[in-house]
Automatic annotation (TrEMBL):
<dbReference type="GO" id="GO:0008817">
    <property type="term" value="F:corrinoid adenosyltransferase activity"/>
</dbReference>
<dbReference type="InterPro" id="IPR029499">
    <property type="entry name" value="PduO-typ"/>
</dbReference>
<dbReference type="GO" id="GO:0009236">
    <property type="term" value="P:cobalamin biosynthetic process"/>
</dbReference>
<keyword id="KW-0067">ATP-binding</keyword>
<comment type="pathway">
    <text>Cofactor biosynthesis; adenosylcobalamin biosynthesis; adenosylcobalamin from cob(II)yrinate a,c-diamide: step 2/7.</text>
</comment>
<comment type="similarity">
    <text>Belongs to the Cob(I)alamin adenosyltransferase family.</text>
</comment>
<dbReference type="InterPro" id="IPR036451">
    <property type="entry name" value="CblAdoTrfase-like_sf"/>
</dbReference>
<dbReference type="GO" id="GO:0005524">
    <property type="term" value="F:ATP binding"/>
</dbReference>
<dbReference type="InterPro" id="IPR016030">
    <property type="entry name" value="CblAdoTrfase-like"/>
</dbReference>
<dbReference type="Pfam" id="PF01923">
    <property type="entry name" value="Cob_adeno_trans"/>
</dbReference>
<keyword id="KW-0169">Cobalamin biosynthesis</keyword>
<keyword id="KW-0547">Nucleotide-binding</keyword>
<feature type="domain" description="Cobalamin adenosyltransferase-like">
    <location>
        <begin position="8"/>
        <end position="147"/>
    </location>
</feature>
<keyword id="KW-0808">Transferase</keyword>
<protein>
    <recommendedName>
        <fullName>Corrinoid adenosyltransferase</fullName>
        <ecNumber>2.5.1.17</ecNumber>
    </recommendedName>
</protein>
Length: 148
């Protein structure tokens, strides 16, 4: 399944190109590389959110439900990066989308109808969640660009 890097630098990108997992060379600003980078950024920020949630869950155990939903998301984002780097590799399936939609449906029922938009902030964790939300939307746009 692709190439395993034994070191964190390769010096093969010094001329403005980078390698995909299937061995192809593309410009570093190629839409696929941009999508990989955006998904990676989202995954990193989600990791930061999860670290904060784990700390806060010691005080507010109900947050464990959110953690249980988000931890698999982080793994699937890693898988998505693999799919983007190796277009013939398929790791994601509709079951993950259905799992997320089910959790969102439960939370939406608990919240009731949205009456207004919420500004990012209020606490560090809420602000971090908004960063993840906005990065997810950006990553989605970058990935969709590949299908255009």
């Amino acid at each position: 399944m692709g190439f395993r890097l034994s070191k964190i630098y390769t010096r093969t990108g010094d001329t403005g190109e980078t390698g995909l997992g299937d061995g192809r060379r593309v410009p570093k600003d190629h839409p696929r590389v941009e999508a990989i980078g955006e998904v990676d950024t989202l995954n990193s920020q989600l990791g930061l959110l999860l670290a904060g949630l784990v700390d806060e869950a010691r005080r507010v155990p109900a947050l464990n439900e959110v953690i249980e939903v988000l931890v698999p998301c982080q793994h699937r984002l890693f898988d998505l990066g693999g799919e983007l780097a190796m277009p013939t590799y398929k790791a994601l399936n509709s079951a993950e989308v259905e799992r997320l939609e089910a959790a969102i449906d439960v939370w939406n029922e608990e919240l009731g109808p949205l009456e207004n938009f919420i500004l990012p902030g209020g606490s560090t964790l809420i602000a971090q969640a908004h960063i993840c939300r906005s990065l997810a939307r950006s990553a989605e746009r970058r990935c969709q660009h590949l299908n255009a």
